[in-house]
Amino acid sequence: MSSDVKLIDFGAERDKRIHDLNDKRLAEMRQAFEQALPLGKGKPAGKSKKKKPGKR
To answer: Is the overall model pTM greater than 0.90, yes or no?
Structure first.
């Protein structure tokens, strides 16, 4: 048997294909959620007012 014969690991190839299909499905779901529930621009984190100790 010659050493230049390439063997194909069908299990690994199938795992790659399934991974690619799952990534595609995830991207489609993200896009659908972004269209249905758009994220608003968050308020800029400004300085918060600290409460001063009051008289009781």
So the answer is: no
Instruction: Pick out the chain residues at pLDDT < 50.
Output: none
Measured over the CA atoms of residue 51, residue 41, residue 24 and residue 35, the dihedral's sign is positive
H/E stretch holding 13: helix 10-36
Q: What is the C-alpha to C-alpha distance for residues 38 and 32, in angstroms, rounded to an integer?
A: 10
Return the sign of the alpha-carbon dihedral for residues 52, 53, 55, 56. Answer: positive
The overall longest dimension of the chain from CA atoms, in Å, is: 94
Owner of token pair 């014969």? 5
Q: Cα(56)–Cα(41) distance, rounded to whole angstroms? A: 40
- Give dist(CA 36, CA 30) in Å, integer: 10
